[in-house]
Hints:
By secondary structure, this protein is mostly beta strands. Helices cover 4% and strands 48% of the residues. The protein folds into 2 domains: 9-392, YVTN repeat-like/Quinoprotein amine dehydrogenase (Methylamine Dehydrogenase, Chain H, 7 Propeller); 397-482, Hypothetical Protein Tm1070, Chain: A. The strands form 11 sheets. Strands 6, 7, 8, 9, 12 and 13 form a 6-stranded antiparallel β-sheet that branches. Strands 2-3-4-5 form a 4-stranded antiparallel β-sheet, with no helix packed on it. It has a 4-stranded antiparallel β-sheet with strand order 14-15-16-17, with no helix packed on it. It is globular, with a radius of gyration of 22 Å.
Amino acid sequence: MLERVKPGVGPEWGGGGIYSLRLHRGSLFYTLAFEARSTLLRGDCSWSSYDYSLVGPPPRSGGDTYNAVEAVDGKIYFGGWAHAPAVLERKGKGRLAEVVFTNKYSILHEMDVDTGEVRLLWKEGARDRRLWACEVSEVLYNPLRDTLLLARGDGHINCGIFEAGRRGGVRKLSSTPVLKGEVFMDMACFSIHHGWGGNPGLECVDLESGETVYTGEAVPEEAGLDGGGLDHYREGAVFQLHTRVYVAHKGGFTVFDPEGGGEPRFYRVLDFGDNPYSPTRTNALYLGGGVLIPFNTPTAATVRGTDELPNNVQRSSRRSPAPTLLVYVTPTDMRIVGSLGARVTSMEALGDKVLLAWSTQPNFERYDATATDASVRGVAVVSQDSLLAGRPPPLSIRVDPGWVGDRRFGGLPLYGYRELQVDPRGGRVVLEAYEISDEAPVKYGREVVEGGEWIDVSSLTDSLVVMRIEKPPREGMVRVRAL
């Protein structure tokens, strides 16, 4: 499992990855997308593998690209989607290709950890060439009803929050499209899904009744520290931490207070405007009482063009402003604890180690489909101590002025960094540092940078540095370095 996985047959949109890493009763489960294969590795080195044959005939593709997995009482429950059979349609004489969605199904499976036996609990398709039934992007266990809660938001038909019985049967609790979620107190809270755009939102249902008990939305200009907006919102993982619910998303984090009644708070973190650098298509990992979140070198990119995204987003998607950065969130600070070249698709803790599944390619867009998975995938193993007790990695970030214009960007966590350099290459950049706090925003000062000098930031360890280009560079990119 820890060896590299080269591209295999998987008609889909570009690069998939290794998803749904889950350790349960000494066995490790994972799904290889887009090749529609789930594997269980046991402690005695035996293994079981499933090829999604219960969904439909070959050739098959898909699996899971959101980490929709849960473990309960010796059973692994895994959601996602699959094409069965997969159909790839070539367009004209070139290499343009499109996946036909007629045989795409949203799915929920159960695997027995001891025997490897797999049951298909539920599937649903839209039977349309271009549209699909909303994927299962989250599976949560509800201990009060001994059921599973499903998030469905990525798709076009039958989105919402669903409850599934562990022996089968599915009912809809809410029609609000949602993508990721987490159990919090006696609720299950889910991020409201808008596609690319909209504002961060959260909907919570009561675990006992299934009724919606909280719906909230954060307007970034009002909820943020710096008063700026948020472009091309798309959410990643949802996690709970110290009486709050966090939604990780493109541009940072939004913190909701479903029970306490407080207003949402938006923290701009590693925001690069139009560029799709984000903490999407990965999971949150609880570690040492805090939470680890990857901000990924773009998880989505356009190669040949699409009719579904703005041109500025498409143009920026093939260039990355920074490597994938691992951000560790505690109730009092956010810190960068690791740097990787590839995007991280899934994470799991294994003893004193952390498993980081990686993929070299992003998801592509509709007309960038390939007959094989476009990526090389694998798993890196790092120690928890190296992440939580070490110094942050040196940073080198490049920002194209065309991505951000005169809007605010950045949100660089300064914890552990001593010096910061912003080189506007003949332009002028305004820096503002904000304290990470639930209270009213505390601004530490404003600094205008023109010459690329190094700034002492050793006293701002609980701060985020937000930037704005006041005068564009004469040429090239704005460069940001931190040591």
